[in-house]
Amino acid sequence: MRLSKAYWQTIKEVPADAEVVSHQLLIRAGFISKTAAGIYSYLPMAVRVLQKIKTIIREELEAIDAQEVSMGFVTPGSLWKKSGRWETMGPLMLKCKDRKDNDYCLSATNEETITDIIDKTITSYKQLPINLFQVNTKFRDEIRPRFGIMRGREFLMKDGYTFHVDKECMSKSYSDYYKAYENIFTRMGLEFIAVEADGGAIADADAQTHEFQVIADNGEDIIVEVSAENLAMNIEKAQTKRLDLKFSYDDKIEDVLTENLPTCEEVAKFLTIGVHQTLKSIVINSDNNFYMVMLLGDDSLNEVKLSNHLKQEWRFASDTELLSLGLVKGYMGPQNVDFQVLFDSAIDMKASYIVGANKENYHQKGFVPLIIENSKTVDLRLAKEEDISVNGNPIKFRKGIEVGHIFELGDKYTKSMNVTVLDNNGKKVNPLMGCYGIGVSRLVAAAIEQSHDENGIIWPKTIAPYDVYFAIIAKSDETKKVCDDIYKSLQEAGLDVVYDDRGMGFGAMLKDADLLGLPVRVLLGERDFNKTGEVEIKVRKTGETIAATPQNLCVKLKEILEKL
Question: In angstroms, rounded to a whole number, what is the distance separating the alpha carbons of residues 380 and 300?
């Protein structure tokens, strides 16, 4: 591609609303243009990256016998109502009506649509398994879209779906997709890790599910890694243990004046004890049923774990509700409450703690959890860096960007939508489903977050928009003719080349080259070329420079690219 004929424009200034590196560089390097909050247009350079990503995805999925389909971006509300998600998806779903007053929405995901397709076409177990995928646009009305295309409202997604007559078959497909995803992200040149994850609203809490996380400093997710066990978990899912906690076993009950000391940290400091020797009391409301959650004073609630335990929506109790329950905010305890108390599993039920005394400005010493009859012990705490694994091994926190997620859905959707097939005994059964997503447009941002420097993007070879940036500084027609011949030879050798023939100044041209971040740059400066007959090859990732002649340039470039 000759830049003199291309639509490509770079920007010097960092956009004011771009918080993360990928957002800044994608705009500055001319890959995306903002249309509205969380909605971006992909410009020619970005389209080439997306095409390469999609090609890798298609090749690896076709290798496990997946077939591509294309489902509508707009889907009827009747399907979502049938599955029960019309309301539960909440404001994330952008809803509308047609001229006949029928409900529709912009697709946030396509479980309902694909299940409806199977319902209309499949009747027997003999037609299973089925393995379908699509690469299509999705829309989720994020309350605060941010980080450019990493968390936009409109995005490009690969979603795949499998259907099975039994769990063994479903697990086989799950394993196939797991390996295919490893191949996909490896081919893209990304450092990634597969982690045990929570199924969220899309799957049952106990279903097998993994996230594929690209390791990056700006990642939104925290990964808990246990190298000794070859295990990694999203922090929402992670089960860990506190290390070397010492508790008191003095069960002498005593109310202590703790005026204007409502937090565990303040009370612990006042009493000169460890914060873990206090208990934090949290009251929640789930469908007008109240629960008190008890944590060690220096632990935090893992809201996902609580949701999975309750298996229904919940919220924190309001101040008004606390007063109606006879509880004083900041001084609450589980003594004499008439609803269930959930003790986190890190709490020693036989030890004694400081808890709220259920009267203003007082805490109680010597409280022993074992005395509470209507209680359960549940893992509800958020893992911390200083923890150890359940098996006693060291853990490590890493930051990641979720780019893929695979689920065993079971009969969650086929059952709710009343989809059946006949099994080998002629009995109607709900087929089992698997679901497999990849954030295609998010991968573009994740690759940049992982691989960049102060000068710009450093693209992995397999998804770079082009292989080579050929920059020239030439005034004479003779040298320009040599440059044109080199450009032609590179193209004939099968290399994708950006030919910077715009006649820009040396500094501006090389800044654009670094900003764009193609794997290698070739520089032909007329003065040096006339002296040596050589051009300069520079590897973007390492900064290594190599001299070449026009005659051996193609061979050297292919050797370099092969090693990247």
Answer: 9
Residue 495: is its pLDDT beyond 70?
A: yes
Class of domain 466-563: alpha beta
Residue 413 CA to residue 344 CA, distance in Å, equals 32
Q: Give the H or E element holding residue 169.
A: helix 167-187
Question: What is the distance between the alpha carbons of residues 215 and 221, in angstroms, rounded to a whole number?
Answer: 10
Compute the mean pLDDT over every residue in the chain, rounded to the nearest whole number: 95
Say whether pLDDT at 205 is over 80: no
CA–CA gap between residue 131 and residue 361 (Å, rounded): 62
pLDDT of residue 61: 98
Average pLDDT for 332-356: 96
- As given in the structure block, the two tokens for residue 369 are 């959890």
The pair of structure tokens assigned to 235 is: 């922090």
The tens digit of pLDDT for each residue in 34-68 reads 999 999 999 999 999 999 999 999 999 999 999 99
Task: Give the bridge partners for 352, in sequence order.
Answer: 248
Q: Which tens digits make up the pLDDT trace of 286-300?
A: 999 999 999 999 999
- Please give, one letter per residue, the 3-state secondary structure of 52-103: HHHHHHHHHHHCCCCEECCCCCEEEHHHHHHHCHHHHCHHHCCEEECCCCCE
Read off the DSSP letter of residue 312. Answer: S
Q: Give just the sign of the alpha carbon dihedral 439, 444, 445, 447.
A: positive
Kindly list the domain boundaries of the chain, sorted by start residue: 17-239+397-449, 254-378, 466-563
| pLDDT in the model for residue 207 | 75
Pick the closest to residue 378 from 403, 330, 345 (CA basis).
345
- CATH fold of 17-239+397-449: BirA Bifunctional Protein; domain 2 (3.30.930)
- Check if CATH label 3.90.960.10 holds for domain 254-378: yes
Residue 221 in tokens: 């997710």
CA distance 170 to 163: 7
Three-state DSSP state, 363: strand
For residues 460 and 446, give the distance between their C-alpha atoms in angstroms, rounded to a whole number.
11
Peptide bond into 129 cis (omega under 30): yes
pLDDT at 206: 65
**Pick from 454, 484, 494: which is nearest to 550 by CA?**
484
pLDDT at 320: 95
Q: How far apart are the first and last CA of the chain?
A: 22
336: left (phi over 0), alpha (psi -120 to 50) or beta: left
Residue 39 pairs in a beta bridge with 36
